[in-house]
Amino acid sequence: MSFRQKTALLSALALLAAYGWYFAQVARARTAGPLSDTAMLGLVLPTILAVVVIQVAGAVLIAIFSGERQAPMDERERALSANAIRGAYAMLLVGALAASASVFFGLTAPDVANLALLAVVTAEIIRYGSYVFLHRLAAR
Amino acid sequence: MTALISNRVRELRVARGITQIELAQSIGMTRQTVAAIEQRHYLPSLEAAFRLSRALECPLEMLFQWEGG
Fold it and tell me: Over the range A41-63, which residues count as b (16 or more CB within 10 Å of their CB) and which as e?
């Protein structure tokens, strides 16, 4: 597994863990009533920080223990990356349309923002996950 | 997935005592891509094929062979 695949897997897991926690907190808070802007900000900032810290620290640890460095993508990696982005883009499109349509169902602004955020995070997880999966598939 | 085009990349690389990493660096690719080419899991672009041909000092038509019938 190359350095890029390892960091992609790490990013997918970091997003899954951090935003899994975030959306669980949002869902819990939402049952008590509409989510305020400040409450949402109080949840989203530590989540973003956690993802950044995990990604940076993880990339450093992977580089130290594997002895590899990030190299420019070659033609095969670019092709696999483009395929991964295609799948993620479809998810992002559906998510953005769903978030836009939710306005007509009486959802609050933070709810719509959370739906849009969910679409972005899911698309990113699909992108990173697909990149690793497509590499494994192509190696068979 | 195995390509219909076979190649002698591994054979020539080993004969010249070059590692996959060294070959990859000389043609601007990753080691994983060189391994995928050798295992016929990936067909390189024409440009990459020419680079391989030059790096391994072997004519293109000797390096890659069509097996599609």
Answer: eebbeebeebbeebbeebbeebe
What per-residue confidence (pLDDT) applies to B52? 96
Tell me the pLDDT band of A78, cut-offs 50, 70 and 90.
very high
Chosen for mutation from B2, B29, B38 (greatest number of chain A CBs closer than 10 Å) is B29
- A35, pLDDT greater than 90: no
Mean pLDDT of A54-67: 88
For B1, the closest of A2, A74, A140 (CB atoms) is A140
Angle between helices B20-27 and B31-38 (to 10 degrees): 110
B44–chain A Cβ distance below 8 A for any pair: yes
Q: Quick check: A84 pLDDT over 80?
A: yes
* Residues of chain B with C-beta less than 8 angstroms from the C-beta of A138: 1, 36, 41-42
Distance of residue B31 Cα from the nearest chain A Cα, in angstroms: 9
Residues paired with residue B6 on neighbouring β-strands, in sequence order: B65
Residue B8 has pLDDT above 60, yes or no: yes
B30 shares contact with chain A (CB less than 8 Å): yes
Domains of chain B: 4-62 (1.10.260.40)
Residues A87, A7: Cα–Cα separation, whole Å = 19
pLDDT of residue B3: 64
